[in-house]
Structures are given as C-alpha cells and as structure tokens.
Known about the structure:
- The complex is a heterodimer.
- By secondary structure, chain A is an alpha/beta fold.
- Chain A folds into 2 domains: 11-36 and 304-413, Aspartate Aminotransferase, domain 1; 47-301, Aspartate Aminotransferase, domain 2 (3-Layer(aba) Sandwich), CATH 3.40.640.
- Chain A has 14 helices and 17 strands.
- Chain A has a 7-stranded mixed sheet with strand order 4-10-9-8-7-5-6, sandwiched between helices.
- In chain A, helix 3 crosses helix 10 and helix 12 (352-361) crosses helix 14 (396-413).
- The longest helix of chain A is centred in the N-terminal third of the chain and has 20 residues, at 67-86.
- Chain A is globular, with a radius of gyration of 22 Å.
- The termini of chain A are far apart.
- The relative contact order of chain A is 0.16.
- Chain B is of the alpha+beta class.
- Chain B has a single domain (3-137), classed as Sufe protein. Chain: A, CATH 3.90.1010.10.
- Chain B has helices at 10-17, 67-79, 85-89, 93-100, 109-126; strands spanning 30-36, 41-49, 56-64, 136-137.
- In chain B, strands 3-2-1-4 form a 4-stranded mixed sheet, covered by helices on one side.
- The chains are: A alpha/beta, B alpha+beta.
- The A-B interface holds A 25-29, 350-351, 353-354, 357-358, 360-362, 369-370, 383-384, 412-413, 415 and B 1-2, 4-5, 7-8, 13, 17, 38-40, 64-68, 105, 108, 111.
- Bound molecules: pyridoxal-5'-phosphate.
- Pyridoxal-5'-phosphate binds next to helix 4 of chain A.
- Chain A: It catalyses: (sulfur carrier)-H + L-cysteine = (sulfur carrier)-SH + L-alanine.
- Chain A: Residues 32-402 form the Aminotransferase class V domain.
- Chain A: Keywords: Pyridoxal phosphate, Transferase.
- Chain A: Pfam families: Aminotran_5.
Amino acid sequence: MEATEQGPIDVEAVRADFPILEREVAGGEDLVYLDNAATSHTPEPVVDAIADYYRRYNSNVHRGLHELSQEASVAYEDAHDKLAAFVGGEDREEMVFTKNTTEAENLVAFAWGLNELGPGDEVVLTQMEHHASLVTWQQVADETGAEVKYIPITDDGYLDMDAAADMITDDTALVNAVHISNTLGTVNPVGELADIAHDHGAYIFVDGAQAAPTRAVDVQEIDADFYAFSGHKMLGPTGIGCLYGKRHLLAEMEPFLYGGDMIERVSYEDATWNDPPWKFEAGTPVIAQGIALAEAVDYLQDIGMDAIRAHEEALTEYAYDQLTMTDDVDVYGPPGDDRGAVVSFNVDGIHAHDLSSILNDYGVAIRAGDHCTQPLHDTLGVPASARASFYLYNTRDEVDALVAAVDEARQIFAP
Amino acid sequence: MSMGSDMYRQQILDHYRNPRNQGELPEPSFTHEGYNPSCGDELEFDVALDDDGETIAHVAFRGDGCAISQASASMLSEELPGMTLAEVDALDRDDILDMLGVEVTPMRIKCAVLSEKVVQDGAEIYTGDGDEADRTTTEDDA
Ligand SMILES: Cc1ncc(COP(=O)(O)O)c(C=O)c1O
C-alpha cells in the first residue's frame, strides 16, 4: 500500500469518545481492552446515532408513507450505499445487511450453494478458516454431495500458494478464504486467490471480518465475488453484518429467507422477488443498526483507514517483539511486521485459560480458547491459545501492561 | 483485585505441577473419559473397586488442560479411595469447590467439576444406569 497521507492517530482524543475504556475491572484495575478481534467498542457518535434514531424517527422502513417512515427509510437505504462504498462497491444493490459475518456466509451457502452445488463440485477453503465459513460449507457440501478441500498453511503461518494453485481446478465451484486470519494474523493474498479461482470459472467469497475494520478494502481490486464483515468489530453495534456481492450474482441468486419486504408481487399461488439488496432482507430489517453502522464508517473514515492500519501495525509489531523477548512464549503465524492486528500465543506451562484468568486480575482483557478455529489449533498442535488484538484506541502502554501481566502469571506458575 | 487471583493458590498450583495418582491402573473396574469444550480440558479416570464391588480402592487418572481442571482431578483422586459409589454419586459442585478451597470464577466452574462428573458418569455406566457410549462433557452443565 502507498505510504499513508493521513497523520498519526491522536489516541487520547479518540479514547475520549469511548467512555467504556475509562472503567475499572477486577475490583479497581484500569481496563486494558485487547479483545478487539472478538468485538470492538462503540464511540459516542455511534451510540448517539442509535439514540437519535429511537428518539426522533424510529419507525418501520419501506412500509409507511408518513414522515417518520420516510426519514428512517432514506437513512437506512443510504447506509447501504455508505457500506458498499466503504469496501469499494458501487452502491446499495451490491450491499446486503445481515445479522453478522456468519449469517452472510450462510446466506450465500443457502441461496447459492444449496442450489448450485452437486456431486463432483469442490469448495476450496483454507486451513485457517473461521468456523463461520468452515462449518457452513462443510454442511452444505454434505447436503449437496460436493467436496470440501483445505489449502494448507506453511510452518510460518502463510497460505501455501503452490498448493492453492494445484487445488483450485475446473471442479472448483467456490473458494472461501479469510482475508486476515483471526488467529494467525496472516494477511492472505486474496486477490491472487481470486485470479486463480476465476481462471477456473469458480467464485470467491472473502471473509473480511478482521480486514474491513482495520484497513482500506477494495472489493473491485481484489475482484471478490462476495465479501463479508461484521458491524460489531468496526465500532458499530451488534446485530448487523454486511455482505457485498457482485451485482449480477445477487440478481441471479435465489432468496435466502422469505417473507415481507423481499417480495415484489404475491398471490395465493406464488410470489416474485424484490430487487437486491431487499430481496435478501426479509422482514423488518436491522434499521437502527444499519444507520448506526454508517455513522461508525464516518467515524473510521474521519480518522482514516490508512492511519488506523499504520497505528495497528506499529502496536502489533511492538507486542510481537515484546512477547517473543522471552523464549517460553510461542507466537503463532507470520513475523510481527507482516500481520493483522492479532497476536495469538502460548506461554510454556500455562494453559491459555489460566493465563487469561490471571490477566483479568490486572485488568487485561484478552481472548483465550480456540477463537472459532478448532481445526487450525489441531494443526498447530495446541488445544487453545491466548490472543491479544488491537484497535485504533489501544496504546503502547497497554501492550506494556499485557506483557507485565504475562510476567505476573509466569511468576505465579513458576516451578 | 478480583477473586480470580485467589484461584491460583499454592495448593492448586502444587497439584497442577505434581499431580497425584497420575497414570493407569493395571486392572480397573471401570475407566471413563470426559471433555470440557470451553477450555479443551481432557480427563480419563481408572477406578478399581474393593471386593465388595461398592467401595473405591484405587484411582488413577490421565489428563491435559488448565490448572483448575487438572488440580481438581489430582485432589479428587486423593479423596476417592474409601468412598462408596453411592457417596460418589452424592457429590455435588459445592463439595468440589470446598475441596479446592479457592473461589472459582463463574466461567471456570466447568473446569473445576469435570473430574467429579467423569467419575460419576463412569460409575453410573459401571452400575448399569448410564449409557455405555457416553463421553462426559461439561457442556450440558452450564
Ligand atoms: C475471520 C472471522 N470470520 C468470521 C467471524 C464471525 O463473525 P460474527 O461472529 O460476527 O458472525 C469472525 C469473528 O468472530 C472472524 O474473526
């Protein structure tokens, strides 16, 4: 990526927008929130957007001609344009609001996969897929007689692209790849994967749950057929996810859920479908969440995605270097200067859950477990790992607090 | 500080580092294994009964997982010999927490009680009240 033109983040000013970061935990410790890959916090302007919606123009969309409904409908539809543009899409017709990334995966798996896949077809995933895609395509393959294959990872946590080139063939119907691994931090060459897939007439679904919040994404440059991400990981509310899909694919695809709003004309015998994206948003949709997520996009873009990325890369590399200074720590995935903002690790002799419990006593919130990548943890040969993940409001001091708390755990567990 | 720090008292760490009765029994009356999906803890217990077929004579276990689950297994393995299967059946969560002697945070209760559930389920299967194929998990115990 080009050198960033955006200045560095004024972290102190940013933190002032997140009152939750001021709270204490564990009976008086300052909160050090390093679990952003699981969910991010919500800045005041986004909280205000939600409150404003409920206080001023709460009403159903597309169903009323009264003023409140018009205001809500316009704001909700505009939010689709904003989210489409956020990842490089053209407009609302390419942007479906779902519940989360998981539902976006399921939407394509049900609406496209169940109808189009059959025996002889292959779905190619990566060994580092999140359960959101892995379990979903496994089940759809099982149902349709298609076969699932996994692109292996190298010892240092990159995708084995030679293997990918061999595995993606004319039998491949779809490639599903995580853009940034939520466990390894690996940034996958999704554009290259898209080229290989398209050379064989296959589609590519990119899971952008960790990428969209943390860097500028351009679905057209990647040439992604589908691209999914979650609002709650990018300063938005829970309950909303986004599915970008190429215009012609969304137009051709069958619906996912049936009901109100997704129809054009209904008789007692049959129905015809509304245009995308509404064809995929059956029933009263995620109105407040959609409007608030558009506000989160404004917030992120005011700071600048390149500035956010630079901030996180610096923190991630610092954390990687600090954690690996002692040789009883294993960090999984690529080197510290070539990864997304997650660092998963284990400390010799301390189970990740014990580590996380002790870190909590020092106010440090991290994730411990398999991070919804159980097969990947099997590949790594560990049942669980601890994971620190950073966002625009985190500081080097917080990384130091993490490292100090890990050292406390080391003392407690010292033989 | 919160009660979490209390979980890692010396006694827990001692049992975690030096588990008692770790290994296998040559002729167990029954063997049973269990799994705690939230931490990935695994435990397998061998239990040998006295000639009365009621009273526990020897216990051994194998396991892998967090300090709470493994210390709990080690401490329970010391408590069990001399107990009858009926007494084992009557054990509950509070008995285990008393045995551990520390405050266990809510998210970690499943780790603490895995050992108890494994032995109880194994005994149930042995006495014919349980389903042979069952592998114990703490998932339904939330
Ligand atoms: C890479 C990746 N994919 C998918 C998901 C699922 O997101 P959600 O739980 O919001 O559906 C997550 C996060 O949990 C993730 O990190």
